Amino acid sequence: EDVPSQTFDNKDYFCGKETFPVYESIFTEEGETIRKIAIEIEKPPQIEIHVWTIRKGILRHFYVEKLSKREFEGLPYFKLITRTTLSQWKIFSEGEAQISQMCESRVCRTELEDLVKVLYLEKSEKGHC
Predict the structure, then answer these.
(1) Contact indicator for 118, 50 with CB cutoff of 8 Å
(2) Of 7, 23, 27, 101, which cross-links 78 as Cys (Cβ 3.0–4.6 Å)?
(3) Is 64 within a domain?
């Protein structure tokens, strides 16, 4: 008998959960660092970009924008950093909302770095899902 191949439509799966590509862009202009974290979502097909403006370590401005895949493909500087699950993205988004309030008046470099680490999935050993 033929055993069906497990291609999952060329999508990566992590412990049975679908994963989505996460991109990052960091650039500095006029003393400000603009850091963008983007996720590519299938339904609806769009890119959600979280934009942080950091001046002297303080989060000055934070917002979310949504683009079509075509618009996103035309943007420079983005590189694929990982794949994540929607549940991890939700944790990231909730943490981001807390940090954006907490970091309006103080330096939050480590908090922002730790938040991005939430998106990286640890390779699970078989049977530990």
Answers:
(1) no
(2) 23
(3) yes
Cα 48 to Cα 5: distance, rounded to the nearest angstrom: 32
Residue 126 in any domain: the answer is no
Domain that holds residue 111: 18-119
pLDDT digits (tens, 9 = 90+) for 98-118: 888 777 777 777 888 888 999
In a domain, 8, yes or no: no
Contacts of 15 (CB under 8 A, 6+ apart): 124, 129
Cβ–Cβ < 8 Å for 30, 6: no
| 105 vs 8: which has the higher pLDDT | 105
Per-residue pLDDT, 128: 55
Three-class secondary structure of residue 55 per DSSP: strand
Nearest to 11 by CA among 21, 23, 25: 21
- pLDDT higher than 60, residue 1: no
Number of H helices, E strands in the chain: 3, 6
Question: What's the token pair of residue 47?
Answer: 């890119």
Is 106 a member of any domain? yes
